[in-house]
Amino acid sequence: MAVKALAVLAGLALLAVPPFLPKYFLEVLISILFFAYLGLAWNLLGGYAGQFSFGHAAFFGIGAYTSTLLLLRAGLSPWLGMLAGGLLATGFGLFEGYLSFRYGLRGPYFSLVTLAFAEMLRVVTVNLKVVGASLGLVVPSQTNALLFVFADKLPYYYVIAVMTAVALAITHRVAGSRLGYCLVAVRENEDAAEAAGVDARGAKLRAMAISAFLTALGGTFYAQYFAYIDPTITFGPAISIGGLLPAIVGGAGTVLGPVLGSFVLTPISEITRAMLRGRAGADIMLYGLVLILVISFLPQGLMGWLRARRAS
Amino acid sequence: MSQLDLSIESGEIVGLIGPNGAGKTTAFHLIAGFHPPSAGTIRFKGDSIVGLKPHAICRRGLARTFQLVQPFAGLTALENVMVGAFTRERDTAAARRHAGEILDFVGLGPRRDTAARNLTLGDRKRLEMARGLATRPELLLLDEVMSGLNPTEIEAIIGTIRRIHERGVTLLIIEHVMQAIMALSHRLVVLHHGEKIADGPPALVARERKVIEAYLGEAGDGTAP
Fold first, then answer.
1. Domain ranges of chain B
2. ipTM over 0.95
3. Chain A to chain B Cβ contacts (< 8 Å)
4. B215 touches chain A (CB under 8 A)
């Protein structure tokens, strides 16, 4: 109960405080919520269903490129293009998922296949001039709210805040539903789940569909916020890892885990990058060390640690 | 498994016995859809179930337990049974209610909020039965639910099995605890090296020479009839 009260307070603060924040802090906060959002999206498949995808960049990239191409070629607002990207990503996810689950890929094999699919999309994009190849795409940045372009950072903040809130609500809803229980059962013991009447493949595919859709929306947000996308940023491993780490560190398979994880990890990432600027790669190494420590000593993530403390 | 010819009538309690390695659990894997048969048919309520996935077979009313209990370790007893209940209920509250009733029925009511990994072996076996029961089966396959239990626990589980039968569930039970299976079964089927060597009322089957030889031929496991 104390956790819920804190969460509500934090939520209110996140709504009321940002207009008064200096620009740099607002940027960090947007970054935190962005990775919290991606973590929440990943968590449905990776945390609840226990299917560790290392290739969520595939969905992120499909979202980013679909909305951007629809905007550039057809003048379609990214608010709508976002949904198209989401649907395409869902389709791709179901395709990827169906092949993987049909052929019984589990654990590390599933992870590697998802990574391969993301890489495949990256390479295809690099080689297709019609989508900008390795030069990427520049997103038009004349301010126009209807085209998801804002002059200030603050509106972008509220967009990502709403997206995060929606992702939280969806996670909470799924967790308490029949699908949620079935996913956890499949994660804990797939054979026993099947014997108890759970359609394991169907449940995993449902999780994949929701996860892919939400991740794609994140891709569109990125495109509109940074006004530039290329194959490496959108389909590369960095964004896949960036999405799954907050979920694992915060507590995979919990509702608040990815949010908590991002609030811890993202500032650390910012600080190490600022402190070690100029020493190429040093910030990533330090970040990696922090991760190893967290994963070694807190396998259930921060949420697990908090629960254990409360129980004792 | 070779040439197994087995049929079960609604309302029966059939005991499936035989020395270790006779193929009893293999028979369960085949029936419940975990392993496809290389030849032959398997019919449940008149329809072939060959090629159906285990969850589809479960939905038709055929549930099973595992020889090595397979609880969802991180979930509570109630949550474990809810997974089974969700086969029949869409709504979480209804599934919770149904699961609660089943837990009370098998005597695990007081343990409903205990994590499955913290339950005793006897309770985990009950939990496994409860989870199967929650799917409202017409036929329940029990695989050595008494192994590893002390005599008191065995008495209790026999009582539970009888109550399950009284609820209208047909039972096919693999068991090594002879007194129990002889007392419970209407009919005994004996497997040896993957083949059926006897099929009939317990008292008669126990006296058949083939059956006695099959058991005595083993390295004396001490539970021969």
1. 1-61+137-225, 71-136
2. no
3. 85
4. no
